[in-house]
Design goal:
By secondary structure, the chain is of the alpha/beta class. It has five helices and eight strands.
């Protein structure tokens, strides 16, 4: 029998159900992040430091081959992340470390940043329950000595197969740079 009181009870239950479904959806859409690395002990970069970024090669996805455009997107994200923290940055002409180091010397740059995609699993089927994932490793070289002065890696695991293939790019770049340079990731500072 319908009454105003039972109607409010059903409305309350419906609201609880909507909140529960939304919370479950948010949990399913979350991304798990693992980062490692940092700057060499005692090493800091001054405000006048400039960095040449070696272009990142496109990711290779086991199932479907070359993930076209991922390298450019990652290179742009790394460049933009460094610029946003005040570094003078330029992207190298080629993909080889030796060539980039020579270019950095010619330009009077102090550091070369090189990154590799270590994992790229994009849009697995919903039947397999495999989640999208991506990994990035970054190395920072001192041009003067050629030594690695910092390195960092990040691995992200998502949960949806319908998201765009480059959705991990901003967070991968941000998390690896934050780890190597010791600043807070933008994903934490946006909250």
């Amino acid at each position: 029998m319908w009454s105003e009181r039972s109607g409010r009870a059903w409305t309350g239950l419906a609201a609880v159900a909507v909140v529960a479904v939304a919370a479950a959806g948010a949990a399913c859409a979350s991304v798990q992040r693992t980062t490692t690395g940092g700057m060499s002990p005692g090493r800091t970069l001054g405000p006048d430091a400039n960095i040449l970024v070696v272009p990142v090669e496109d990711a290779v996805e086991i199932k479907s081959g070359l993930a076209r455009g991922t390298g450019v997107a990652l290179t742009d994200a790394l460049r933009d992340g460094l610029v946003s923290h005040g570094f003078a940055v330029r992207v190298a002409a080629g993909y080889e470390l030796a060539g980039a180091t020579a270019e950095a010397k010619d330009l009077g740059f102090h550091y070369v940043l090189r990154a590799f995609v270590t994992e790229w699993v994009d849009k697995p089927t919903n039947w397999t329950r495999v989640r999208d994932s991506a990994g990035l490793s970054v190395e920072l070289y001192a041009v003067e000595t050629g030594a690695v002065v910092g390195s960092a890696s990040c691995r992200l695991v998502g949960t949806t197969a319908e998201a765009p293939s480059v959705r991990f790019v901003p967070e991968l770049a941000d998390a690896t740079l934050a780890r190597i340079f010791g600043w807070l990731p933008a994903v934490l500072t946006r909250r």
